Amino acid sequence: MFEYTLHLGEWKEAKHAFIFSKEGCIKTFGHVPDVETRVIFASAVNPDSLESATAKAAWLDEAGQDKFRLVAYEAVLRRVSLNRGRVLLTTTPYNLGWLKKRLYDKWVKGDPDVDVIQFSSTLNPAFSQEEYEWAKKNLPEWRFHLFYDGMFAKPAGLIYSDFINLPREDGGHVIEPIQALPWGLERYGGIDFGATNQVALWIAYNPAVDEYYAYRDLECGNSTSAEAANRVSRADEHYNFTMWFGGAPGETQQRADWNDNGVPVDELPFSDVEAGIDRVTGLFRNDKLYICSNLSGLIEELGDYRRDTDDSGDTTDDILNKKRYHHLDALRYAVVGATGGNWMEPAGTGVAQMFGFSRRRMA
Questions:
Q1: 237-243 CB contacts, 8 Å cutoff, 24+ apart
Q2: Contacts by 307-312 with C-beta closer than 8 Å and gap 24+?
Q3: pLDDT averages per 10-residue partition of the chain, 363 residues
Q4: Spatial distance between the Cα atoms of 205 and 359, rounded to a whole number of angstroms
Q5: What is the pTM for the complete model shown?
Q6: How many CB atoms lie within 10 A of CB 336?
Q7: 92 vs 7, 127, 205, 217, CA distance in Å?
Q8: Which of 130, 148, 222, 269 has its CA 20 to 30 A from that of 337?
Q9: How distant, in Å, are the alpha carbons of 190, 211, 306, 331 from that of 185?
Q10: Quick one: pLDDT at residue 209?
Q11: Which residues of the chain form beta strands (DSSP E)?
């Protein structure tokens, strides 16, 4: 359209960019700018492709999809920062991840830097009211609200649906960042090993009120075990004891490598993923686990971590894209390690509670 019909410029495959010609600039802008005018195309699936360029504005299409991660959005912001450029996002709200927290929730609170234009499918003149009513009658409520009303709704199979992404004072599980931990809080860490997506996460336990706080995380992918362990050691205050847990039962060598480099990583008391999810769920359900607001990667994953659905929209037992959630795996390791093997469910409540933890110590 731009190249052959409007004759505004030329598509450069090697650069993944459309370059405006002088004639195209005059047609479009009324003058020829001092610098080359181009439209750069990149994929949010590969955030590295978004680096290096300097842009005046950006359009992010389908930014609410699962594959469009927070790191890609932040990469775009860096590219327009020099010109303080505006960013337009057009999308269906597919989940409750970063898009809701970073933009929609801020707009609801009146942030002047964010504007949301939200509309139903029927505002498209070509979309029939009959089709809208059919979808409302036949689709699951959450799916209808997402895809036909553009409204955020909890997707079917959301695993940590008990997590409330609101400040604690508003009944949620989000707290202000903790700059320095008070003396006497027990600290535990979870490490999700990986060659490119290694994550360490710290939680603290306050025995006085029986509460846990996830207060720090560190992404240390593309690092050797020695390099990652060194970064974790530098990030640790060392003024109170920390016990680290991480890895699947078969990742014995990774734990040994970390131990050899000064970070003692213990094997989990049990390795069953579903049982570990139950532990974390129980803490959220009983308001015993809170997340610091600066842990954006963890909060994003909490709003997106869900079970797969079949063609009918019914939830299955499978976790959708389960290898993607490195922060949540690290949180699960930390919680399971901290709570140990003594986890009891009181009769008549149906809610997991903790009684008399046996907290192992390392010499």
A1: 237/180, 237/181, 239/183, 240/181, 240/183, 240/184, 240/185, 240/186, 240/187, 241/186, 241/187, 241/361, 242/187, 242/188, 242/189, 242/202, 243/187, 243/188, 243/189, 243/337, 243/338, 243/360, 243/361, 243/362
A2: 307/156, 307/157, 307/159, 308/157, 309/156, 309/157
A3: 95 93 95 92 80 87 88 91 94 84 88 93 92 86 84 80 90 91 86 90 93 94 87 72 85 91 91 91 94 93 84 75 92 94 41 32 29
A4: 11
A5: 0.65
A6: 26
A7: 32, 16, 38, 30
A8: 222
A9: 17, 10, 32, 17
A10: 92
A11: 9-12, 17-20, 38-40, 57-61, 86-90, 174-175, 186-192, 199-206, 211-219, 242-246, 265-266, 289-292, 307-309, 315-319, 343-344, 353-354
Tokens of 124: 């498209």
* Side-chain half-sphere exposure of 10, counting CA atoms within 13 A: 7
Q: What share of the chain is helix, strand, coil (3-state, %, to 5)?
A: 30, 20, 50
* Separation between Cα atoms, residue 230 and residue 259, nearest integer Å: 11
d(CA 109, CA 185): 33
Residue appearing with tokens 């990149």: 42
At 221 the pLDDT is 80
Q: What are phi and psi of 280, to 5 degrees?
A: -65, -40
Amino acid at 21: S
* Sequence letter at residue 273: V
Beta bridge partners of 202: 189, 216
How many other C-beta atoms are found inside a 10 Å radius of the C-beta of residue 309? 17
Taking CA atoms, 99 is separated from 65, 120, 297, 354, in Å, by: 9, 18, 12, 34
Q: How far apart are CA 146 and CA 185, in angstroms?
A: 41
Q: Which of 204, 353, 356, 191 is nearest to 285 (CA)?
A: 353
- Give me the pLDDT at residue 342, please: 55
Report how far apart, in Å, the C-alpha atoms of 65 and of each of 126, 146, 192 are: 24, 12, 24
| Cβ proximity of 30 and 56 under 8 Å | no
Tokens of 87: 């960013």
Tokens of 299: 């909060």
